[in-house]
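Quick entry between incubations.
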Amino acid sequence: MAATHHVIVGNSIAGMEAAIALRARDADARITVVSAEHPHLFARTALMYVFCGQLSLRDTEPYDQGLYARLRFTRVHDRVTAVDPAARTLTLASGPPLRYDTLLLAVGSVGRPLPSAPDEGPGVHRFVTLPDLEKLDRETKPGQSVAVIGGGLIGVEVAEILHLRGLHVHFLVREPWYFPVALDEAEAAVVATHIRAHGVDVRLGETVSAMVRGGVAGGPPPAPGARFTLTVGGAPLEVDHVVAAIGVVPNTAFLRDAVPLADSGAIEVDDALRTRVPGVWAAGDCANVTWVDGSRRPEQLWYTARDQGRAAARSMLGDDVTYRRGTWYNSAKFFDIEYTTAGFIPYPANPAPGWVAPGFRTWFQHVPGTAVTQRIVCKGDRVVGFNALGSRWDHTVFLRWIHERRSLAFVLDHMREASFDEEFMPPFRVLPTATVTEG
Amino acid sequence: MQSGLLTTYRSPIRTRNALAWLVSAALFAFYLLLYLPGSAYTPNFPDVLSPIASALRLPSKWFLYGGLYSLGMVVGGWFMLRKHGNSRYHRLRTYTVVAVQVVLAFSLPLVLNVLGRPEYYFSYVWPLSYDKLFPDTLAKMPVYVALYFIVASLVAFPLLAYYKGKRFYCSWICGCGGLAETFGDPWRHLSDKSDKAWRFEQVSVHTVLALILVTTGLTIAKAAGAAEDGAIHVAANHATSAYGFFIGALFSGVLGVGLYPLMGTRVWCRYGCPMAAMLGIVQKFGRFRITVKKDMCISCGNCSTYCEMGIDVRAYAMGNQDIKRASCVGCGMCAHVCPRGVLKLETRADAGPGGAVQVWTVDL
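Done. Structure below.
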C-alpha cells in the first residue's frame, strides 16, 4: 500500500505545526506543503519589526531552514486555484495538479479591503501578508502623510511603524474610543494619550465617508502631491497613503463551493476540525470554530493557530479529537504600552461614552503619571476577568484565580504573585484612587 | 517595556557591510599593537602604544588601554541607555558595570600606581584573571588581598552564581561583558544562533576551562616543590606563557573584541571564557532561570535575534519551556525586547505560581 499523502495548503504556524505533528506520528507518509507566500514559516506577527528594520525576515523564521529537508516535507511554491474534493485534487496556478489523500486547509486570512477605497493601486495598503509589507515598504517615504483607518491591533502597529519612518500619521478610529472590544473608555484614554504624545493625530469617533484620488469632486484643487482626499467627519483630509486596518477576512475565495463556508468566508469545521467534505480539514484563522460561549467564529490568534494545527494533525491521523481552546487570554502592545488580558472582559455592542458593564462590578486603578492601569471584573464578589496596561502579568495565575472562584479582596491581596515585570520595577499597590463601579 | 522600535538593520555598520569590516580591522590592529610587543612569542614587535602612553603621562600602555576601554564603555553605555534605558533593570545594570570598570578596573589601579603601590584589579578573579590562583602570584600579594582573590574565585562568586545566576558577574561586574553590553550593543544581534555554533561553544569553552585548570595545577605542583629543572617546572612555565599569549591576549583580546562588528559581542564570553564556563556549570544547578509565560509567545524572534549568546530563546518560549542554559549571561535583553512580556529572569527558590491551569469556561 502506498504511503498516505498529506497535503497542507498554507505554510504559516497552523500548517507547519500540523506538518511537524504528522511527521512525528507517521514516519512514512508523504507530506507536501503548498504555499505561494514564502518558502519558510515566518512569524506574521513580526511584520512590523521587519518593516522598521528591528528584525530581518530571516530572524522571524522560528525553525531553521533545514527542518523541511530533515522532516522530508515536499515544498510546492505555488498558488492553489481550485480544490476538487471528489477527485481529491488541487489545481495549481503554474504547476501540475496535486493529488492528496488528506488535505489540510491552513490558508489564513487577508486584510479586509476598504469599502470606500477607490482601487487597490499605489498608496492603498493593507498589512497582513508579505506582499502587503513589501508594498508598504516600497511606497512610503519620510515626510509623507498617511491615514490609518481602523482602531484595532493592526491599525496601531501600522501607525507606530509609519510614525517611526517619519510619516505624518492620522489614525482614524470609528468608535468613540480606541479598541472597545478589549479596552474600556478609561484604558483607551491612556492609550490614546500615549499615542498622541508620540505625535500621531488620533481621531476618535470619526468615520471616513468618502475617499477619492486627488481632490474632492467639485471641490478646490488638491494640495501638490496629495494623492487622496478623504472625507472624515465631514471635513476633507489630504494624504499620500491610506492603510486599511479594519480587520481580516478568511483567504478562502479560491475554494468557491469546494467546501462549505460560513457567511464570513471562514471554513466550517466540527470539533475535530473536519470540514463537511471527506478528507478535508481546516485549521488556523480560516476555520470557523465553536467558542466556549457557543458562538462560531474564527480564532485570530497565533497560539490557537498552533494548537489547531496540532489538533488537526491528530484528527487527520484518525484520533478522536475535540479541539477546545478554553478561556480567553491574550496580550498585545500599543506603541510602548503592553497589554495583558485574561478571563471574561465585557464589552459594549455599541460603545458610547459613559458605558458601564451591566451586571458586573469593576475595580479599576490608573497609576498617576504612567500608562499603568489594572481592571478587575467581578460577578458579584467573584473575579472573572483581568485587563492590565503598562505592566507585565502572568495570565496563568489570573486564570487559576478565576478557576478557584476567588474574591476581589483575595486577588488584590495576592496580585504581586501574578506580576511578571522585570526585576526592580515598582511593585503592585492598591492606590487610594482605585474605583469600584457597579454596573 | 522596550521603548520605541529599533532600526537595527537600517544601520549599515550593524549589518556586516564594508564599514563594519573596517571597524573590525581597526580593532584587530589596535589589539595586535597592544598585545604583541614584548610578548613571549613576539618580543620584538614594534611598540607604538607605549610612547603614546608616556606622552600622555600615563604610567604604561595598559593605562592608555584602560582609559580608552572605560571611555568606550561610558559612551557606549550612554547610547545603550538611549535605546533601552526605560527599563530600570537595564539602567541599574549599565550604571553598575560601567562604574565597576571606571572605579575598580581603571581609577583604583591608577591611584595605586601613582602611590607607588602594586596595582590590583579587584573585579577580575580566577579563572578569567588566570594567574590569580597561581602560588607565585599569590605569594607577592599582601595576605588580605590574596585571601580576597582566593575566596572570591572559589567561594563567593560561585555562590552568587548559584543564587543569582552568572549574570551577577558577566553582565554586572565583568569588564569583558561590560564592553559587550555597552560599546558592543549595536552588534549584539550578530551572534550565531545555529545548533552548530552551540555544539562548538560547548567544546571550546570547556576546553579553555580545562586548559586553565591544568595550567593552575601545574603552577601549584611547581610551587609544592617540584625540582627546579624538572618536567613539571618546565611544563608550568610553558603552559603559563602559552595560556597568557594564546588565550589571554589573542582569544579574549584580539578575537574577542575584534570580531564585534562581524560575529557579535560575546565571542570570547561564549566560546572561550573559563569564568563563564565555570559559573555556567554552577548556574545549571542554581536558581537562575528565565521563565516563560504560557502560550503568549508570538514567535516574532526578537528574543533570539537580540541574544548575544546565540541562544534560541524563541524555541523555548514557543514550547512553553523555562530556559536554563549554562551560557546565559542574564543580560535580560530577551525579556526587554519581547513585545508580549513572555520572559522573566527569575531566581526564586520555588517553581512559582501559574502553569498548567486550563479554565474551559468562565462561569457567569
